[in-house]
Amino acid sequence: MSPGPSEIYSQRHEQRSRLASQLDLDHRRVAWYRLAAFFLLVGGLLAAPGLWLLLPGLAFLALLRHHAALSARRETARRAAEFYHEGKLRLRGEWPGRGVTAAFVEAQHPYARDLDMFGSGSLYDWLCRARTRTGQQRLADWLSRPALPDQIARRQLAARELQPRLDLREDLAALQSSRQHLKGISPQDWAEKPLQLRSGGARLVAALLGLVGWLALAYWVLRFDPLPLGVVLIVQQGFLRLAGRDAGEVLQRTESIRGECLTLAVYLRRLEQEKVDSELLQELWKPLNTRPSRALARLEAVMDTLESRRNPLLAPFYVLSLASFQLAYEVENWRARHARELPLWLDSLAQIEAVLTFASLAWENEDYGWPRLLPEGGGVRAVQLGHPLLGAECVRNDVDLSETRLWIVSGSNMSGKSSLLRALGCNVVLAMAGGPTRAQEMALEPLRIAASIQVSDSLMAGISRFYAEILRLRQVLEEAGGPGRLLYLLDEILGGTNSQDRLVGAQAVIRRLYELESLGLVTTHDLALTELVDELGVGSANVHFEDQLHEGVMSFDYHLRSGVVQRSNALELMRAVGLQV
User: Fold this and answer.
1) Residue 415 gets which letter from DSSP?
2) Are residues 447 and 551 in the same domain?
3) Is the residue at 381 inside a domain?
4) How many angstroms separate the CA atoms of 33 and 66, rounded?
């Protein structure tokens, strides 16, 4: 029997950790050798200079190079070990809050807040494997709106092709130690900004002033006369005041995207080595056929030089030679050549990262499957459906909204009603994004989603919870009237008013959604609402969850049953927490 994801992650984590430890020992040993070679070289220069010093000099340079290579290999091994450690945390259910927790969604999104799509402990937090800001944003976009059927099919084929490529996912994770945060200007915005430096005359003047600066420095060293150097520095500063503002802005923007551009370069260099077959992946790899990593390597060299300006030993020479001004022109020349290509590279990488996220999700979770798309009118069916964020203890249930368009879900508190809504909603979101779902089998027609599960008031906006909820219900009804079919998920709606108004209002909303041919689940504690099924007929059904009370101890099995619940546990729960009722 082949090992599962947990065993593979554990084995590889141990192997990469051992390698990192061994490389750390080698790194420290070579550091001592390098120090010894340095002292031998310095001592020889002081005591007995001669040609023999070439030997310790060359040894020092070789050890310096070897030390840097060991450092790079050690960091790669550490990052690879961290990659597998993160995988183990996800498989053990210990990941929430450790991933990407940025909020990507607009305030009035029809389901993101209700299904806990984004933020700490969210589906996105647990799901996202992207490490660039563009990849993270693209995955968020895919989860925020349903794709077209042909897009879903193409993404599925692409993810299934990349699913077994664990080495590729490890390599990409090992190339970058931390996820890029969503702040500052993006590389695409940077590339698309109008060019600011066009005058070759200003660059020529800067080059001449830099040359004169070096000559003035040489004059000072040879004649011990600093006056010419002082005059040149004053002239240079005057020139920069007149012509250097744009150059400064160029360099400031460039430094703000340095981390992501370096990440893009190393990622593309690795991806250029990969061969792919599926239609979508071939399209995504097409911009990589021109070897963009080579062009990015030139930009990387400029950025590394910019970074070296911070070295206090080198900074005076950069000032004297006006090198920063020249580097700004190099950046603008690079943008002039590649500004149109960079967005294509970023878009390819963003989509590849999103596809790799789905591939990794399917590989890590053997209980996930790839949903089938049905023609319009096919509804949604799922066998052994589970919520993606619940661990191995998750109780699965079957859902069938094909012949039946409406389920009214009754049941006691904490019995699983809201979890069922979220489980169905999250899996439909994954399916409509082109990803795998936590179900033994799942088939669905193209669906849009709207939900009213998690509604809150707003003191700043002067909106009560009830008013916020009726605004959300209006949004759900508007979504139902749009193109395509809607899946609506309503949890205990209209709880902020009296029981009579609540019943009448809820019935009216459900009837209208039913008339619009939408699919939906509605949970309720008000058993009078379950009588609506008798009015609507065969297109609707009652289902419920139960609790068990044995010797004062309440338990839940979370299994969905047909029909209306027959008992309530509200009073028992109040007594269980010490309320005298």
Assistant:
1) S
2) yes
3) yes
4) 11
Rounded Cα distance between 345 and 349, Å, is 6
Torsion angle of C-alpha atoms 380, 381, 387, 393, degrees rounded to 10: 170
Helices (H), 2-128: 5-47, 54-91, 123-127
Higher pLDDT pick, 254 / 439? 439
Measuring CA to CA, which residue among 424, 393, 391, 395 is closest to residue 407? 424
DSSP string, 47-63: H--SGGGHHHHHHHHHH
Phi, psi angle pair for 462, to nearest 5°: 65, 40
Containing domain of residue 406, as a range?
A: 372-576
- Please tell me whether residues 386 and 338 are part of one structural domain: no
CB 320 within 8 A of CB 213: yes
Per-residue tokens: 312 = 């206090």
Specify whether the CB–CB gap between 556 and 415 falls below 8 A: yes
d(CA 473, CA 458): 17
298-to-132, 301, 335, 341 alpha-carbon distances in Å:
20, 5, 11, 15
Number of domains in the chain: 3
* 524 falls within a domain: yes
Q: CA angle, 10 as apex, 8 and 12 as ends, to 5°?
A: 65
How far apart are the C-alpha atoms of 398 and 401, rounded to whole Å? 10
CA-to-CA separations, 310 to 7, 315, 318, in angstroms, rounded: 46, 6, 10
Contacts of 159 (CB under 8 A, 6+ apart): 355, 356, 358, 359, 362, 434, 435, 436
For residues 356 and 172, the answer to whether their CB atoms sit within 8 Å is: yes
Residues recorded for the chain? 581
Q: Tokens for 270?
A: 């690795």
In angstroms, the first-to-last Cα distance of the chain is 57
Residue 504 within a domain: yes
The residues pairing with 548 across neighbouring beta strands, listed in sequence order, are: 555
We report the CATH number of the domain holding residue 342 as 1.10.1420
Distance CA 220, CA 226 (A): 5
Half-sphere exposure of 499 (CA within 13 A, CB side): 6
User: Looking at the structure, do residues 456 and 540 belong to the same domain, yes or no?
Assistant: yes
Q: What pLDDT is recorded for position 363?
A: 96
- Are 386 and 503 within one domain? yes
pLDDT at 577: 58
Q: Which of 42-56, 77-91, 166-180 has the lowest mean pLDDT?
A: 42-56
- Examine the domain organization and report whether 298 and 211 are in the same domain: yes
Nearest partner of 191 among 261, 248, 267, 141, judged by Cα: 261
Q: Select the more confidently predicted residue: 181 or 75.
A: 75
Contact 465, 496 (CB under 8 A): yes
Q: Which amino acid is it at 509?
A: V
397-401 and 380-385 beta bridge pairing:
antiparallel
Answer with the one of 68, 87, 106 that is the final residue of a domain: 87
Residues 253 and 289 grouped into a single domain: yes
Is 100 contained in some domain?
no
Q: Which residues pair with residue 463 across a beta bridge?
A: 458
For 549, list phi and psi in degrees, rounded to 5.
-120, 115
pLDDT at 108 over 90: no
Phi-psi region of 437 (alpha: psi -120 to 50; beta: other; left: phi over 0): beta
Which of 341, 364, 387 finishes a domain? 364
**Selection from 181, 203, 157 nearest residue 256 by Cα:** 181
Q: What angle do CA 212, 218, 223 make, to 5 degrees?
A: 120
pLDDT of residue 145: 93
